[in-house]
Amino acid sequence: MKVRRSERLVAITHYLEQRPYQLVPLTFFAQKYNSAKSSISEDITIIKRAFLNSHLGVVETLPGAGGGVLFTPGIDHQTAESYLFDLKALLADPKRILPGGYLYLSDMLGNPATLKKIGQLIATQYAGQKIDAIMTMATKGIPIAHSVAYYLNVPFVIVRRESKVTEGPTLSVNYASDSSNYVEKMELSKRSLSLGSRVLAVDDFMKGGGTVSGMQNLVQEFEGQLIGVTVLVEAKSPNDDLTKKMTTSLLNVQDLTTSSQVINVSMGNYLQRTDFARFETKD
Amino acid sequence: MKVRRSERLVAITHYLEQRPYQLVPLTFFAQKYNSAKSSISEDITIIKRAFLNSHLGVVETLPGAGGGVLFTPGIDHQTAESYLFDLKALLADPKRILPGGYLYLSDMLGNPATLKKIGQLIATQYAGQKIDAIMTMATKGIPIAHSVAYYLNVPFVIVRRESKVTEGPTLSVNYASDSSNYVEKMELSKRSLSLGSRVLAVDDFMKGGGTVSGMQNLVQEFEGQLIGVTVLVEAKSPNDDLTKKMTTSLLNVQDLTTSSQVINVSMGNYLQRTDFARFETKD
Question: Does the keyword Flavoprotein belong to this entry (chains A, B) (predicted)?
Answer without folding.
Answer: no
